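Quick one: structure tokens for this chain, please?
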Amino acid sequence: MEVIEEGDKVLFITSKGKKYLLEIRRGKRFHSSEGYIDLDQVIGMPYGSRIKTNTGSTWVAARPLILDRVLNFPRITQIVYPKDLGYIVLMSGVRCGSRVVEGGTGAAVLTTILAYYVAPTGKVYSYDVEEGHLKNAEKRLEKVGLREFVELKHGDLTKQIEERDVDAVILDIPTPWLAVANAKQALKDGGILVSISPTIEQVIETVEALRAEGFADITTVEILLRTLRVKRGMTRPEHLMHAHTAYITTARKAYKEGELS
């Protein structure tokens, strides 16, 4: 049985469903609208244990998922949302041992998820034109123990991609269509390109560029997520939902006619 130790990150889930990701330190107290807990009281307890605040609210001390960790990153740029992250990982085929080019790094949410899936034998090459984004990403990756699986690169994918024979190229940049030709050069045969764009105008430009470069299996989707409020006799969808966040375009590198000798 693995127990909580000082220095661990623990996700506390309250009676009202709020979540707090906290680092366990002796002598520290955390206050909330549902009362306070002394963080050292969970040291030595198994993950999943229930504890009570001073007001009697019952909280669960859970082991955080990688998703819980990245959603607590400072949002210095727009992030890729969870409903899109899973689709991107599946459609790109990213797995242990994959070599992946990403542009741009941004707030490092997608970077971290990619690193989590390629570890321990793969590599993410993450490009960004802003050095500040790369410095932020380095800090975040170190905190979650994934820094060694990412090479952070100051560069513009619309101008150059240095890597070759990579499994996937994932573009989250303002002008992805300008990087399509470079992505084709970087990808191995049959490799996957993924482009993430907030507007349909960007999608049109990107799809046209993919067609011009001879990519196959070009698909664009939008993922909508609606949660349910479940209570016997009163179950219904929540009033608010996560609707449009981005359009996701995927394609496979293929030879044009006449390219094979």
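The domain at 68-252 is CATH 3.40.50.150 (Rossmann fold).
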